[in-house]
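User: Show me a protein chain along with its predicted structure.
Assistant: Here is one chain, sequence first, then structure tokens.
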Amino acid sequence: MNDPVNLTQPQSASILPAQFEALCPPPQLLPGENIDHYHAVQVAIFRDINPQSAIEWLLAIDIAELSWEMQRYRVLRHRLLSIYRQKAIEMTLRRIDLAGIAPDFQDVAEIYTINNALDWQLDASAARDIEARLRSYGLDQHAISMEVYVQAREILSLFESLLNGAQLRRLLLLKEINNLRRSNMVDLAHVASRKGQPSGAKFPRRVLADEALHGR
């Protein structure tokens, strides 16, 4: 599982300057999410981007929010795979236990198979016995994982779309900050040239590294 940044000490709410605090809404966390982890991600991104204006802070806030959403999607996707693993066990047991069962007994066998899958999830001893039985049929954990992805393929496509969309929006925002800073540097260079300052004067804003724009 891809957990959020884990620090030994809780983080402060943010590092926003006081005049920009109104730009950052309170975090909307889901049950089970950790506010300290959220703040740790937010602070790390703010420090790396180092916003210098209200517009840059607005963009940085959105980047931090998208980064948290991506971590959320990864956690939920992992939980989803755990849920579908029980379904995969059930489907695999059904292929074994219902083979050759007379039609009159199929309903009873179906209930028995469902109960076995529940036992696999809730009872560690039963899980070991069921997995050993599956291995005797040549069905190891890799075979079960393959069944998991078959069962969850549609919902996994949804999560893939959510992750890709959030990543694209994050890269576009990084590019927007980069373009804004380049424009500001050009403006400052023009002002410096008119005042007779050397063209290599140090400017207050740094440009985001191009590697960040490509996710490297």
